[in-house]
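User: Hello, can you help with two protein structures?

Assistant: Certainly.
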Amino acid sequence: MERKKLKLIIAIIATILIGIIGYIANDYIILGKNKTINVVINNRNITLNLRKPVIIEGEEIYISKQDIGNYFDKYIYEEKQNNQIITTYEDKIAEISLEKNEISINGTKKETNAHAIKKEDTIYIPIQEMEEIYGIETEYKGDTKVVTIDSITREQKKAIIAKDTALKSTTRIIAKTIDRVKKGSYVIVIADENGYAKIRTENGKIGYVKSNKIANTVVVREAREKEEQNKEKINLVWDYFSTYAQAPNRTGEKMEGVNVVSPAFFHLDSNGKIQENVGDKGQAYIEWAHSNGYKVWPMVQNAGDGMLTVTSKIMNDYKKRQELIDEIFAVCIKYKLDGINIDFENMKQEDKNLFSRFIIELTPRLKSIGLDISVDVTAPDGSETWSLCFDRHVIGDVADYIIFMAYDQYGASSNKSGTTAGYDWVKVSLKKFLDTEEIKSEKIILAIPLYTRLWTENSNGEIIKQSPVSIKSIDKVIPKDLGKKWDDNLRQYYVEYTEGSNIKKMWIEDEKSLKEKISLITDYDLGGVASWVKDMETENFWSFLQKCLTLE
């Protein structure tokens, strides 16, 4: 009986060993002759994750638009009006034709060896033509059917195989043999793992060899670190002086802690063209700002009557968007600006994705000359043309900063009196930016109001009028020695008094209420603060704000 059991165990072990040996041998043969084209991106085989197979036509390698979207540009876009593909990556925007062998990169056209093609409703992009845009090197290994794609910004190490050896699939004792690598062949070294080197062979295969089988490891390409443009929190103040008034003379003024000013230099006219409001006074303003170490990010506004329709026409036409982008690019160079603040409000909800496209297309043009881009948005909940017209997730992902204009919780058009910016409302809105819209905290700038509103109601509680009041003028507007009531939810004082038969109401913005809102910047590690608007502040406001931002 014991002998029979022993024979059975030996037979089972033998069967398993024969199976393993056969599997290894068979696997080696199959892997030597790939039936499908494998794609290796930055030393990772992503073939099984491809949505569409790679196409090889002559010397061209075509990868589907869906897969380009997964691995390079998630915002890649078919622009049907001109039958071309629009793709953006870091500081480049490119248009590649579906008809002609040409590509335009940041507005400059050049001839190519191939163009995008469409097969069975799938668009394919010639990946070699995208090397300059995506910062990559591509190669097709015809003998093994492997496409390798390497980012030129990543470190790359190479070594020489010191002795003929097997390339294994893992570092385990029993592992599949992927290939044989010969002495003297060059390999790319991916990593060192417990006495094994993970390598990529000359024919594109990835596996492991013992570390003592490689020699002369050399760094052939250093990693390029992306330089951070702003290492400190942004402290921005808008300087609004209407579309026709001249820039103010700020000579001799200093604002402690401020590092960005945003003057009202540019706006769209009724034809959707950029109108400048700079002139000699504006030039002097820029010189003043730079001499004080302030960056200049002027506003580009679509303010004014009829701009909802004008803005919609621009957003719905790729060429018009590019014309506007070209104009913005030109004024940035002309005035040696440091960035731009896009302040587009009152837009159609149905144009939400197209406004996002505008930001997607504008950003790389500004990045190409080292500029910052910030975009103003409202709270996530509100009207179609005021709030629902923004895709905050995309804007926050693409732009350097998304500025949350945390004010006018109850504004000029409100049929009910209320606070301009209650702490609880600001906090809930910020949580939506972070949790629902999934925007990185360091990209969010919290904009605070340097004003409040004085509401006048009749005896029936109906609003007769409302008036904005700057924080520096509040004590001049409300009666002296008026009792103030603190609201723990809003975290601000409230006053109410009668004037004749009417009731006056104000939710006060002062250092105490603003400090509560500013504390959210530290609590959520936001990118900074913005203040609306210059000349509404109290005498010591800038030093107060700086102290609030530096509190641990």
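That covers the first. Now for the second protein you mentioned:
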Amino acid sequence: MTLFLQVALILMSVQAADITFTLDPAAVEFTSFRSEEVVYIPGGASPFADGEPGLPGMGYSMVIPQGTYLESVEVEVLSKVTLQGFHNIAPVLSVPLNQPIPAVIPHSGSYTGGMFPAAAVIDINTGNKTGFRIASFNYVPFTWDPSTGILSVVTGAILTPVIAPDTDAPHLTLSDNQVKTAVSALESVVQNPEMLDAYAPEIVGGVDGAPWILIADESHLATLQPLLDLRATTHGSAFKSTQWIYDNYTGRDTQEQIRNYLIDGFENQGLVYALIVGDFGETTRVSGLKIGGTGPMNSVADLYYSDLDGSWDYDGDNIFGELNDELDYYSDIYVGRYSTDVTSRLSVMVDRTVAYETTAPAGDWQTTALLAGAFLWPPYSGAKICDSISVRIPASWTEHKLYETTASHPSNMIDLYNDGVSYSSPNGHGYQSGIYWYYNPPTDIISAGNYTGLTNNDVPTVFHSIACLAGNIENIASIAERLMFWPSGGAVAVMFNSNNGWGAPPNFGASEWLELYFAKVLFVDEQHEIGVTHAISKDEFKSNVSISMQTWVLQESNLLGDPALRFIAGQMGIEEEEGNPSVVSPVISVPSPNPVSSTCAVNYTMPVTGAATVVVYDISGRIAATVHQGLLGEGQGSLSFDASTLPSGCYSIVISSQTGSASAQMLVLR
């Protein structure tokens, strides 16, 4: 068969996979903000730049064949309605979490031009994720005439992806372990996971490199040895000193030498995970990203070591991570950092990580979460993202919800951490020194002013936050670093921002979207290796949502901790309730059929008869539909669900009961 015919057959098979978009006009919601309208549709977000009319769109992503790219998307409109009334659409607004909302919100020239948007399909992208080709686009079903206030919405359309050959696309040959790890991760990212095996990169046997690599100054080897020994048993490990890398790999600076070693390990030696040891300096790459009038970022972006495509300096100006440097933002390997050059601090991190996976005590702390929400721009609060995270957490967990009011805010955070919290999302105003409440006194949520009261060394926490600057590792020890090295207690992994977190009141901003995806991947998709969870939440956010300041947030969110660390709730044996190992959580299956076009069967298993709910959530964490609420009998059963009122897209279907909860993914395509 000729190459031309092979490509033709590939294109025919992909073009046949049309997406049928449907939207019930009754699902379009409006809220008021500064005398203008904010428009919402289930699972939607506005993909436009700041100042443009904030009409929402729906994101779609798919795995496509090797050697191809998404050239365009053809749209056939089947039905369209004009919404009643005069509509004055509010512009897209992005605000750093530590700055006030502008008194006057800028409006672009689109408010004095013709129909908006000019095209319904925008942000067409193709990228590489561990040898897989990932294509994505955003479809905006609205058209708006600013001069008349007439707003129309497409209620039915056929979206046809057009795939074309790409002679510059990389063709990688990877190990079976690399491909299997990527498939497991991508199953929750793309909307055609059934094609992952068919479109996978070629697999090669006989790879002799270690999947997990530790990079550090050679003087730290003895301190790191216990972790190396643990990973030798769980993954296969090796140590590479920075001195050895600098002697054996070229590059314009030490950072590029390390990255070139990682590229070689990824492409030729089966590399999956890398833990880099080093404080701010020769192992940290600083991003020079600018977006509009914002920037440069000038902050650490460890995505440089995870997204291994290109050089991160396409224009050759020695400024990395800019918009014109051709980043695709997909993680090829999973990277974490121990941010220290101090032996005693490194020893704390190593010992805590090893103990977490080998001698962690049993108890309710393993299924306890702490969500803290401060006012960001009163009355808009971090409680909004906390509530969306909460619906992702299993119903059987204990949740501490600490929310600020105009009268007061909680002050018992340290006591709760010391009692045992496995996951925490503190959402407030951030600085390098900590994360804070809006009102005085005191302002500390978790900060340099109270972290020394932590004594939870045997039950450490995994942290993730939207706060500004709390993960900035330059100059002084940030709160992220302090939580990792405080010997009496703190964190076993921290994912904070190295620069400003970004909101978009009254909607979710980019930082909130990323945090929501992290909770989804951890609790719903049950990706329990923290580095994989961290990276896949970025991958899924990138592929399924397009929003202002997204690329900034994807670069600034770094993982301090071992990327192969397994979250305590995902370690073997703890799923059973203490003292009653016969009680297990309910089980729910992927709907049949899946993808769903109208009616489907939802099969479940209940361990005991009892009250239960079966609820469908969209990607923003909102309830899209309730399948069942009431009594379910012990054993296997089936519920019928009509998905015809839901827009095309990805959903989570969750069953919750007194004994626990379970979830499955549902893809609606018509």
